[in-house]
Amino acid sequence: MSALRRTLICLPTYDERENLGPMVEAILASAPQVEILVIDDDSPDGTGRLADEIAAREPRVHVLHRAAKEGLGRAYQAGFAWALARDYGLVMEMDCDFSHDPKYLPAMLAAAGEADLVLGSRYVPGGGTVNWGLGRRLISRGGSLYARAILGLPIRDLTGGFKCFRREVLEAIDLPSVQCNGYAFQIELTYRAARKGFRVREIPIVFTDRRVGHSKMSRAIVLEGATRVWSIRLSGW
Length: 237
Description:
about 240 residues, Spore Coat Polysaccharide Biosynthesis Protein SpsA, Chain A, 8 helices, two-stranded parallel ribbon, about 40% helix
């Protein structure tokens, strides 16, 4: 991969000590050419210290320490700013809990050769979810349908967080003005990219509920997603 196409995976963490080492190993085994930025929000369980230890012995791993937990969207924005200040042509986002399987990285990176934004999608043929209860399935699928209807987008999985951006997309969508932080953050980024005319492609993935720890989904995050969609629609993007 040329210098202009260097890839950085933004990996936000909060109390992910048990998952971090195996996830880093799995990512680098699946896509040896990528680099990883661990964005740790001062995890009480020592995830940040472990990230520093990994980075000290693995040059493809970098660490960004943040002073406090401010939400997933703010963590990603910090990671994106870090990437854009450096020579990365592709910037990815994914979860650290193995719900986003690193085995899909080669397909997503290949798709980025033709698309500006690649989405790991649960709701296209070949995609799906594992270990989800009925309530969570309804919230996720219903949230995507709701957002699609309001925003007028053909994209099937608007709420997913496994993505690959060309740097030109992140440069064009004015990251400092992004309104949302939780569930709706993913919707807003994809909406802005689509409105700018960037090519969006969905790649099927199977999303598996986290192996270790507890889900960070909350009622407040879901409520934000439901209400913020309208502000996204009216934002003028």
